[in-house]
Amino acid sequence: MKGRSIQLQDAHKHNETESVACILWDRNGKHLITAGADNNILIHSPSSPPSKPITLRHHKQAVTAVAIKSTTLASGSLDHSVKLYSYPGGEFQGNVTRFTLPIRSLAFSKSGELLAAAGDDEGIKLINTIDSSIARVLKAHNYSVTSLAFDPNNEFLASADSDGTVIYWQLSTGKPMHTLKKVAPNTDSVPTCLNQISWRPDGEMLAIPGRKNEVSMYDRDTAEKVLSLKGGHSDIIGSLAWSPNGKYIATSGADCQVMIWEVDRRQDIDRHKFEKPLCSLAWKPNGNALAVIDVLGRFGVWESPVASHMKSPTDGDVESVDDMGFEEKLMSKYEEVLEDSDAGSLDGIGDNSEDDEMGRLPRRVLQKKSSVMVENGEEDNDTIEFNSHRDSLKPKSTMQESFQSGATPQEPGKRSFLSYNMLGSIITFEKDGFSHIEVEFHDIGKGFRVPSMSDYFGFTMASLNESGSVYGSPQKGEKTPSTLMYRPLSSWANNSEWSMRFPIGEEVKAVALGSGWVAAVTSLNFLRVFSEGGLQKSVHCLDGPVITAAGHEDLLVVATHASSPLPSGDQVLGFEVFNVSERTCYLSGRLPISPGSHLTWLGFSEEGLLSSYDSKGNLRVLTKEYNGCWVPLFSADREKKAENEKFWMVGLNNTQVFCVTCKLPDTYPQVSPKPILSVLNLSLPLACSDLGADDLENELLRDSLLLSQMERKAEEAAACSSEIHTENDIFKMEAALDRCLLRLIANCCKGDKLVRATELAAMLSLEKSLQGAIKLANAMKLPMLAERFNALLEDKMLKDSEESIAYKKSISNGAYFDSPVHLDAKQITFNANPGDNPHFPHPEVKPNNASLEIKANHASLETKPNHATLGLSKHNKRTEVDTLEVIRMETNSVQSEGKKSVDSQVQPELNNGPAQKPSNPFAKASNASANQAAEGNVSLFNSIKQMKSTTENEGKRKDRAGTGCFPKKPSKQAKKK
């Protein structure tokens, strides 16, 4: 403790056996009250020299609980009785209640009119201290109640039992508002640790000892965990105490040490080691001092636990302001202003006694005062001072803590996940007093075999991909720095794993992996990037406090706080996407989440789309629509089958979400038994359609987004002259999208929504799909709609024909051939003699050179596609799909005779379409081939192949006649000669 020591003195010595003892300060901080196993209650006066304490001997067994409020002192004992005394004299007033089993905890309400008492009995008794009557009995705990705490705002009572369950009770109804199962440690094996809980002085958070030797803070209204203080205690925490201003908290536990934490920074600022465990703490209400008592009944005072250069624990004291009558001060301060003002509406402000009791009057007075000052165009310093103090009493939203996607909280004695994703999981567990880490893959057939390793650093986060795994540990004290370690799955060299230790004061908050790089974001808002071999490649600053990070191939995303939370409690988050290989910031912006929620998962889909998932169960994906926007593609509320279900996110692809279904109160999966992945379909949160075709509309939007993404990738690949592997996928997606559109058109026809049907028909990609839509309209006896569909078809055929002609003209001019010898229709005459054409190869050259030249140019077109080749290929494939089966399915209710008549009417119109025959650059092509090319049914490459086949057949025929255009192939004997 930095050279200082705390002298403990005996108070309740009892045969040197460890037992529960209690300590607390009175309201003014003038006296200390202690109680212990010797059945006595002592009132100490910390004077110098110390005077003899006042002793209260009214219990027959050990005193296990004491509470004080104003001039009343209460005590509970193993003798099953609750007694009241006057304070400070200590006169015995009487028994207020009795239990059938020992009592473990007592607590006064803010006004002192209610006393809560509980213990090994079933139920918590709320006792009216005026007449000692039982106001209510609260029953919900299944174990002994070890701690009670009234909300400073007098709305809730919090209780904790020996099994670690904490319950919020609503005082007005006596019913549980929130139940937090097993959030605190089980204290059956350590009876001197009581799972003490305590409200922060402003009542906005409840401090609870956690199961991982940490202190967890839970929100007042939602009972959600908002922050944790961890990394200091090596054993379970039993007691804690807030400083008067709520800026600091003291904790003690079975590891025999007391720690002082600065809550805002979530760091311990001082600690002290004792010989025996402490079982009770009490912060002086008006000073920088902490009273302690150990399991042997020895007590002492730790003077100045907060250093003098830091903010005093009494600055901005909330409770002292309330006790001194803050409302009365406001009334007296502004009384003259209200009397001098001529606002008649101020009369009768104090007539409502309920407003005075509920504390609403000061707010009204401030509002009236502010309005008067604004009207007069002035505002004095007192107004500013009191308004700012009032604002400090408002609930303040807490910024979300950093986390690692795919990691679960670590619990003593249990296995937990450091990482869980679509590839596998990293598990940490304790064995023989040491931590161990195992790596498991979902697909055991991949052949990865990663040996387990001993964890000497205390890793709390990890990430896994096909190349390796990275681990991060927080800083522990002033001598153990935060560590980053990387382990490749395989390497050509030995000793290929590496580790990095960060400076004291900087610790890892999240880790990420990609293609050949490792990244860590730290508490100093640094982004550190390393190579796969451990080379430090870059260090740069981020825009705000770090939340999490994730990687995919060359992309790295980091989420940060863009600003403090809004007054409504909503988090304000931002994100940055980096291309590590190109060392560029690819994208940045705000990260949307649901109102009142926090981010729980951030990562990429299997196709590389940035995605996020929040605590309200909403999944969003970043698309390039509208120049980059987030699209909600999944909602847990729409998919869950029971109210107690919660989805824990794992990953996603273009069509499905992979998650683990948990049953509340569990919000994350356990390692054993192995989690079972739930596969759910992506679904946009659309409004209910008047057609009743919500599923089809959802499929339409989802497939449209996917098609847009695929086409954009194909265009980018064509622009870079790279190979295109998605052409067939694009065509299949267009066909699927047309099938969905045709079903929607059928629904619109049945629902008499003809305008909407026309809009859907205009979205069809394939000509035969439009032909099918025309047949569908005729079959449903909608001639006007069929006429509009036919007009769309004519426009489409004309447009495709013009595109085909323009493309073939560009090809005939040699614009897309990469060979140094450009082929031209005017320069090639397949049926002429070689000597008649000066551009044709010399007869001495091998006869298939021309065909080889065509093949070379053909290959160059296939290996280097561009926008024109992609467009023609798409045009040709569109004419090959058959969507008539979909039309038959949608019109199965129409008479077969009607179908025949429709076919006889529509088919001639389709055959006599407006398409014009384009000019054929190959003059000697057959008539059939020319007609097919004119109709768009044969591609350029097919035409070339047909020309080649025609030429070869013609050559063979003329060879047999002795008049071929190519010389005959020499025989083997001729070659030898």
TrEMBL record:
Compositionally biased intervals (Basic and acidic residues): 951-961
Gene Ontology molecular function: chromatin binding
Domain WDHD1 first WD40: 19-301
Cellular-component GO terms for this entry: nuclear replication fork
Region (Disordered), start-end ranges: 341-412, 891-977
Keywords assigned: Nucleus, Repeat, WD repeat
Family matches, as SUPFAM superfamilies: WD40 repeat-like
Protein species of origin: Taxus chinensis
Domain WDHD1/CFT4 second beta-propeller: 401-686
UniProt xrefs under Gene3D superfamilies: YVTN repeat-like/Quinoprotein amine dehydrogenase
Domain of life: Eukaryota
Protein name per Swiss-Prot or TrEMBL: WD repeat and HMG-box DNA-binding protein 1
